[in-house]
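In this supplementary section we document a worked example of the pipeline. Step one takes a protein sequence of length 229 as its only input; no multiple sequence alignment statistics are reported here. Step two produces a three-dimensional model, which step three serialises into structure tokens for compact storage. The input and output of this example are shown verbatim.
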Amino acid sequence: MIEQIVFDLDDTLLDTYRQLVPKATRDACLAMIKEGLATDLETALKACAEREMKKPRHDLFTSLVSRFGIREGADPLKVAGAGSQAFYNRKVETDIQLFPGTRELLGELREKGYPLHLVTQGHRPTQEEKIRILGLEPYFDSIHHVDPKQGERKRDAFSRVMARTKLTPMSYLSVGNRIDTDIAEAKELGWQTCWLRYGEYKHMTPTLPLERPDYTIENLKELPQKCQL
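The serialised model returned by step three reads:
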């Protein structure tokens, strides 16, 4: 029986894929080209789209360096780093919006008595700004930030939620758009999982048993019925 629900933010509650990713990708490619990536903007953007379809597990910035190489005198690590910095560490647009119906769904789940938690991954100041702009804090009992560049994993945040609430593993439901983090790292702890198949990682296919979600949805509105909440 599900008693606690843990949500991801990007491409789960917030439509990052349509609202933020296109400009971030363009800025990242421009930064890499300026730093020494040996290609032009249009070609780099096409490669980004191909990577999303065919190799979504590959790091975008190192894969661009591997594919196109660098100009003479450039440093491959600095080229990839410039892309990562431009993509993740950026000013958040103030007109971002949640998926339609998300605010109502969160309110309904709270009215039903479900404690809600948010576990978001990325550059912390950027993620904090998204949460502030969207006014999400009142909906959640706890909010946890995960920065992979600091060696942090979502499993660590999930463990903190468990330590705080002290329930059996099957009492928790992780909802997110990535099977390698939101699903697999929750299942490592014995949680139930729901994959929102959307965004730049929707083409991922499970390669490990832990990456197979208990439930799959295409739209967040499907969550209550699919997971019997």
